[in-house]
Design goal:
By secondary structure, this protein is mainly alpha-helical. It folds into two domains: 32 residues, no CATH class; 138 residues, no CATH class. 51% of the residues lie in helices and 12% in strands. It is built from nine helices and four strands, in the order H-H-H-H-E-E-E-H-H-H-H-H-E. Strands 1-2 form a two-stranded antiparallel sheet. A two-stranded antiparallel sheet has the order 3-4. Helix 4 runs antiparallel to helix 9 and helix 5 packs antiparallel against helix 9. The protein is elongated, with a radius of gyration of 25 Å.
């Protein structure tokens, strides 16, 4: 029929009510009235805030929870030494703090511009704003200790798989809250 509700109107009604309107007999006018009555009359207006700025606010808001998960890596301490083929008097030993060096990234539909924006912003924030927040949680004495043993906190934050996962899970939770699917891929390096 000519005057039936458009697919966009039916989609808007579904988003508002979570009821499937595809098979409902509705005129364009009826659909418009329902949308206005049930939904926000300003539903077409876009927010002035970008996803990146919303993500940064979300990360700051959930930082303590993320920090609590990430900092568990600092309790894992070990020593790495040269292989057995190196003579005992020439073996070098290195301090190692954390779960292990990891590579973590997101997998998402490549045509999803919102996921792409979140991924780009998340990478930037991980090594700037959020890293600074992470470092501020430690005293100067603690920071010098980790530098002295050869594991600066900056390196641990950037490389430890557990810390990466704590961060990426927080970013993924934000994406989910926006209806964006992002899968976390992580492996030891």
């Amino acid at each position: 029929m000519e005057n039936t509700a458009t697919p966009r109107q039916r989609w808007a009604l579904y988003c508002i009510t979570k009821k499937d309107y595809r098979n409902e007999i509705l005129s364009k006018e009826e659909a418009a009235k329902l949308i206005q009555k049930l939904g926000n009359p300003d539903y077409k207006k876009k927010s002035n805030r970008s996803l990146s700025s919303e993500l940064l606010d979300y990360l700051k808001e959930h930082f303590d929870e993320m920090f609590g998960k990430a900092v568990k890596s600092l309790s894992l301490k070990s020593i790495i030494e040269d292989d057995d083929h190196v003579p005992e008097d020439k073996k070098k030993r290195y301090a190692f703090v954390g779960f292990g060096c990891g590579i973590t990234y997101f997998k998402y539909r490549k045509n999803n511009k919102k996921a792409e924006e979140i991924n780009k912003a998340a990478n930037e924030f991980q090594y700037n704003d959020i890293k600074k927040m992470f470092l501020k949680k430690f005293t100067t004495k603690e920071r010098h200790y980790y530098e002295k043993i050869g594991c600066p906190l900056e390196a641990i934050w950037s490389q430890d798989q557990n810390m990466q996962l704590a961060y990426y899970h927080t970013v993924r939770d934000f994406a989910k809250s926006k209806g964006i699917e992002m899968e976390i891929i992580s492996r030891l390096d």
